[in-house]
Amino acid sequence: MPNLPLPEIPSVAPSRRRSLVRDACGCLQQQMFFWGCDARHPDGNLLVHSGFTKIPRVQSGGEGSSRYRKGWDGGAVELHSYCMGWYSHEQAGVVFVRNTGRFFACEPGDALVPGQYGERVQGRCADSLLGDVRPLIGMVVDYEKAVLSGLGPTYRESCWRHYQKMPGVRGWLPPARAVEWMELFLSDPGATPRAREWLREEVVV
Predict the structure, then answer these.
(1) Which residue has the higher pLDDT, 204 or 193?
(2) N or C: more exposed end of the chain, with fewer CB within 10 A?
């Protein structure tokens, strides 16, 4: 799916860049839980309905669950219960590994086999990844808007309430505010507030 070019990132202090990347990690931790709910939706797999191709599980590959792939922004996004990533043969990609709660840069090429990351994955400093993560965030915004349009706000809010009750979960923004935060992150990272600032507002309200 084509996507409009992202605006250039203005000069942002390294500490601020690291904070924003940490917020993006929290966003994707929550989003991956949502996708698990969507794959089990009673009306059918919402990932498939939204245009993802389901790749059957390979028992010998250590994958654990099915993979879902969709063309996006000159490359492809692939989702799995272990990780999600944006991959391209033309430029470096990025992968979010769920159990580490971190992003990693990825050398150009095909999607990684979940759980088998090898030498293509690089543990760069978080402040250097701010631009790299934006294709993934852009895809999430597009997907969440489609879910809202098709099912209304109640479904995703129920997923969010369920997520908040999971053991060990650190709460993130409610669905509508999460989309708003992601859109700000894409349009102007330097002016994007920390998610915790908005969380405090939610508590006060």
Answers:
(1) 193
(2) C
What is the token pair recorded at 16? Answer: 């601020």
Range of the domain at 140: 14-204
Are 85 and 94 contacting, i.e. CB atoms less than 8 angstroms apart? yes
Which residue, among 119, 90, 124, 94, has the nearest Cα to 106 in the 3D structure? 94
Alpha-carbon dihedral 12, 15, 21, 24, rounded to 10 degrees: -90
| 1 found inside a domain | no
Q: What does each C-alpha distance from 40 to 15, 55, 57, 67, 123 come to in angstroms?
A: 39, 16, 16, 14, 33
Contact 73, 131 (CB under 8 A): no
Residue 173 domain-assigned (yes or no): yes
Tell me the whole-structure pTM to 2 decimals: 0.88
pLDDT at 204 over 50: no
Number of H helices, E strands in the chain: 6, 7
- Cβ atoms of 122 and 106 within 8 Å: the answer is yes
Whole-angstrom distance, CA of residue 205 vs CA of residue 2: 38
